[in-house]
Amino acid sequence: MTLRPLSLLVSLSLCWPLAASAVEFSQAELAKASALQQRLLTLDTHLDTPANFARPDFNIMQRHDHNALSQVDYPRMVEGALDGGFFAIYTDQGDRTQAAHRAERDHGLQRMMQIHEMLAANPDKFQLALTADDAARIKAAGKRVVYISMENGSPLVADPSLLSFYHAAGLRLMSTVHFANNEFADSATDPKGAEWKGLSPTGKALVNEAVKLGIVIDQSHASDAVFDNLIDMMPVPFILSHSSAKAIFNHARNLDDARLRQLAAKGGVIQANAYGGYLIDETKSPERKQAEEALEKRLGGWENMTMAKGAELASAMAELDKQYPRPKATLDDFFQHFGHMLDVVGPDHVGIGMDWDGGGGVTGMQDASDLPKITAWMQRRGLSEAQIANIWSGNVLRVMRQAQDYAARQAAP
């Protein structure tokens, strides 16, 4: 999950865009790419789809086209040859009062329960994955793979010991922080600036406990100083689940080339992200911002919206695009970042984390059904099948395997 409130989320990703993407693929290229993906294991490391599980009229088994709230459902996963990925427990950062910490604790537990409820309701189509080897087995059984991740560690502030419960319930990837600083770490984007100069002492203890449990650490959204702390302190690699290249667009959320090389030297992986505001400057006019705020208020806010209102929102945003045109990242922009990271660290240290249902999506790639375009682009680039397989899942699963093996060795008598 990248941005709140709703006006920011939708305007940056899910509206029907004005700009055209120059890159195009023939039907033959897309058919070849889709056929390859059907053979390979394809995982996305950042799916905010659980945010929809609380909506009374959302059904992951139904297709939700032309809806501003949804980019991932079972039909579009099948069409896009997406085998699954990391389904995020996202928690918005509160005001850091005790009451906010309790609310965040409860929200995280409720979201974990909602993920398990989805799994229980669809046992023939989705299955929980707990180890690096589970994904291939689940795919072979004809099901979609569900790893569980946590975006923002705030649900753990009230009681960090809950991490062991989350691990027992399936948590296998977690980040410490989101858009603002919290008790664990500095955010890359907090307007107040650094508070801890990286990880706090409590944050370092949390990371150490996650390593002990075999949970992979996700650096996305954390500050560069947090990255430096992780490089220095972690005995195993870590990932960035949805990030872009600072050399292409100088945004605080993006990673510079020197740190990309440090990540690769550590054995880590950066997962290419399709959130437009990190790919290009998508600054909106004041009039556009005001119109979006009014639309958000009229529809009741993102958290309270039904899928029916999501369809209404998509239509309304299309009208705003006509009235207040604005910059919009394209598939070309995504490939520029993706290609740069491949050039810097190679195909063994890059993956895919689109930020679907949390702000991701660019002109030319609107939802999970479009994913074969990424494979077609990699085939055009001349990457081998083995390299493409690593980018789609092999690299992140290698990091997970290293984390779990290390934890097992430390726990052995």
Automatic annotation (TrEMBL):
Signal sequence region: 1-22
Protein's GO biological process: proteolysis
The keyword Signal is annotated on this UniProt entry: yes
Keywords: Signal
MF GO annotations: metallodipeptidase activity
InterPro entries given in the database record: Metal_Hydrolase, Pept_M19
PANTHER family the UniProt entry points to: DIPEPTIDASE (PTHR10443:SF12), MICROSOMAL DIPEPTIDASE (PTHR10443)
Stated name of the protein: Peptidase M19
Source species of the chain: Stenotrophomonas humi
Lineage: Bacteria, Pseudomonadati, Pseudomonadota, Gammaproteobacteria, Lysobacterales
